[in-house]
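Worked example

This section walks through a single chain of length 413. The input is the sequence exactly as stored; nothing has been trimmed or padded.
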Amino acid sequence: MIHYSRFTLANGLRVLIHEDASTPMAAVNILYNVGARDESPERTGFAHLFEHLMFGGSANAPDFDEPLQLAGGENNAFTNNDITNFYDILPTENLETALWLESDRMAALRFDEQVLDVQRKVVVEEFKETCLNEPYGDVWHHLADMAYKVHPYRWPTIGKVPRHVEEATIEEVKDFYHKFYRPNNAILTVCGKVQAEEVLTRVEKWFGDIPAGPVPPRRLPVEPPQRRLEQRINEGPVPADALYLAFHTPARTEPDFYAVDLLSDLLCNGASSRLYRRLLKEQQLFSYIDAYVTGSIDPGLLIVEGRPSSGVSLEAAEAAIWRELDQLKAELVPERELQKVKNKTESSLLFSELNVLNKAINLAYFELLGDPGLINREAALYRAVSREDIQRVARQVLSPENCSELYYKKTEA
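Given that input, the structure is written out below as tokens.
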């Protein structure tokens, strides 16, 4: 059981503190409720750009990394469609260093053309490296564009095209910052060898006087149900032909999310999973195969992807996958098989919670979902999924009319 204290400062900053005497370290996590889904279609990639800009220095800390490293700490960040998340881990006695640094860039991020120019180039190079010059790097651009027609999940976190970041002005960047990087749009978690009352006093000291902002209400268009199979063929200089099937799934906060997550594991998570064991090991139709869910807050996707073995056509490979999907819809999964997947999932959750940083990140995320207590109940929610639930969601999700199909064909170039 992970015990935590929860507070809200006068400026709207939500604070969660978990006391963990088993480690000499403290983890500080700040989740900003802004991701790629909050961007303008004409300025995609801004949330990811800001992940980089937030390390460009602030009013009283021109270099973010050096003070943290001198305090024996390290830091990093990540962005996705839903959130932008920053974290620091350092010895508990130096906790105040992290609180000072995080509060300073929340209150007074440094904006100048030189910093923006440097980070623009870094982000554009990352786009080129991971999307344009890496085999299969643009897959998500294709899948998102096919699966989503109105919801902003239709572009990836990196952005639609490099030009959107290249053309970003200092005024647009400032506007994005003042809209979303406010205390009333953030969640701060502190986990480690700390005392909640003492931490709260320090949080008040460093964050309490940062003014709240008028965070714009999120009015995202609801993606309508997909009614027909979407198909696309893309060609490129990749090592081998590849196949991708993307199915719409329930939102992260819907009860059926847990059944769909287990469904993806039954398909392909480990050597005994169905697609891996039957199609890769036994029938040798694939050299690589996987299945996973995006887990996004709004309705997401279950992806099945694979690379057929030499001499196996994409059509034959896809037909083999559909045979396995149809079997899950036609027959109840054996209880022993489902229990094995549940045990694996529960073990992963338990091992994850041994890490103080994971606890800080997860507490912030569940608070964003509206219920930080989920950190203690998720294992039970997975355990409660029945064989009938698996069959029901398989019938709902794994249908051709709910699918976007991408063939990625190898060219000789």
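What to look for: The chain has a mean pLDDT of 96.
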